[in-house]
Design a protein that fits this description.
Largest sheet: 7 strands, mixed
Bound molecules: glutamine
Helix content: 40-55%
Order of helices and strands: HHHHHEEHEHEHEEEHEHEHEE
CATH architecture of the largest domain: 3-Layer(aba) Sandwich
CATH class of the largest domain: Alpha Beta
Number of domains: 2
Structural class: alpha/beta
Distance between the termini: 65 Å
Strand content: 15-25%
Shape: elongated
Radius of gyration: 21 Å
CATH topology of the largest domain: Rossmann fold
Oligomer: single chain
């Protein structure tokens, strides 16, 4: 089979399930990862032959894509803030809106100050690791309740050549944090059961529900717990950053205020959804 025949096969097999541009993107991601071919390589040599073993890989991948398995679970990797991350069923696939949160933290942070940073519910480690990579003097700690997520995060820190202290801990069962921090950041679970209808099948069937869902009657559970801990564990001008549920901007700000944060800012993501907050205790 040639590479151009492979491209046609992708389109014919997936056309009823995905839009054309998404199929193109799958084709490019998978040929890059399996054959190490860039877009230019493919354009210059469309008649290039694919070996039998690779052909088998692509046929299996097409079946998996047809079952709506995320392409990142087929390659076991994704990119976040310009860095490569291993992902698997144990961690949430890093989302672009979380890159916007990291960009906000980096705007506010001063690398000369040897900041202490804590990431709560680190998952793949994407927030902690991208901060550590960009704030070379910072001391970064990351917590997650899941042992398997922490294994993946540890691997990611190693692969990206950064030192992050990982701690296995359930934040809901935590009464004191290990230290005082200049920045506490979290992207905890925030999707309500009632919003499940909006969630795509690939997310529902393949990503860890413990990283995504909260009950309808207490959706700010993690936020309240983390904000309360942060009131006791932030340094004098310390900042608390959250990624938030787009429908709960007002409620999140209200909760932050009543918990003791006097200065709060809410920002939208590129899709114009309320998506992140920055809070300080004093004005
Ligand atoms: N933004 C993620 C999603 O829409 C949810 C992340 C989270 O619950 N923290 O899938």
């Amino acid at each position: 089979m040639t590479i151009s025949q492979l491209k046609s096969l992708f389109h014919s097999e997936l056309k009823n399930i995905y839009p054309v541009n998404e199929i193109d993107s799958f084709y490019h991601i998978l040929t890059e990862s399996e054959l190490n071919l860039s877009r230019v390589d493919k354009a210059l040599d469309p008649e290039r032959l694919i070996e039998q073993a690779s052909e088998l890989f692509f046929r299996k991948a097409l079946k998996e894509l047809a079952s709506e398995k995320p392409v990142q679970h087929i390659t076991n990797k994704t990119e976040f803030y310009g860095l490569d991350f291993t992902v698997n069923k144990d961690v949430l696939i890093p989302r672009p809106e979380t890159e916007e949160l990291v960009a906000w933290v980096l705007q506010e942070a001063n690398d000369r100050k040897k900041l202490k940073i804590l990431d709560i519910g680190t998952g793949s480690g994407c927030i902690a690791i991208s901060l550590a990579k960009n704030l070379t003097t910072a001391k970064v700690t990351a917590i997650d309740f899941s042992e398997s997520a922490l294994k993946t995060a540890q691997q990611n820190a190693k692969d990206n050549n950064v030192a992050v202290d990982f701690i296995q801990q359930d934040i809901l069962k935590t009464d004191v944090l290990p230290d005082i921090y200049d920045i506490i950041i979290s992207n905890p679970p925030y999707i309500r059961e009632l919003e499940k209808v909006e969630i795509q099948k690939n997310v529902l069937s393949f990503e860890p529900h413990s990283a995504l869902f909260v009950s309808d009657d207490n959706p700010l559970l993690f936020y309240k717990k983390i904000a309360t801990l942060a009131t006791k564990h932030l340094s004098e001008n310390g900042l608390l950053f959250f990624e938030i549920n787009q429908y709960l901007g007002k409620e999140t700000l209200e909760m932050l205020k009543t918990t003791g944060f006097k200065k709060n800012e809410l920002r939208k993501d590129i899709f114009e959804n309320d998506r992140m907050t920055k809070s300080a205790i004093s004005n």
